[in-house]
Design brief:
It is a single chain. By secondary structure, the chain is an all-alpha fold. The chain has a single domain, classed as Chromosomal Replication Initiator Protein Dnaa, Chain: A, CATH 1.10.1750. Helices cover 64% and strands 0% of the residues. Helix 1 crosses helix 3 and helix 3 crosses helix 5. The radius of gyration is 12 Å and the shape is globular.
């Protein structure tokens, strides 16, 4: 029997699915450790969407790590701030609130 997801996991999954759909990328691209500018910004958009949906930094860190992305709180915080200060990045998203 499949383990039921808690609300935090559900929100995180909805967030990454939404970002992948809006950016037309695969999940594997989003969670790739690639440090190319575009890949990093895509992850920053994920962190931003998660924060808009009330996930705490620790929750985003834990769930990202569960997906194989070795990320720390400072990077998540920096990413959220970058997207908040960049209307250009925000325009890439069609959906910010996933619930």
């Amino acid at each position: 029997m499949r383990k039921r997801k808690n609300l935090t996991e559900y929100i995180f999954e909805k967030a990454w699915r939404s970002v992948c759909k809006d950016l037309k990328i695969k999940k594997s691209d989003l969670f790739s450790p690639n440090r190319a500018y575009e890949s990093v910004n895509n992850r920053y958009l994920l962190f931003y969407v998660c924060s808009k949906n009330l996930l705490k930094l620790r929750q985003i860190e834990e769930l990202s790590n569960m997906e194989g992305l070795d990320i720390d709180l400072a990077t998540i915080s920096r990413g959220i701030a970058k997207v908040q200060g960049s209307p250009e990045l925000q325009k890439q998203l069609k959906t910010e609130i996933v619930l």
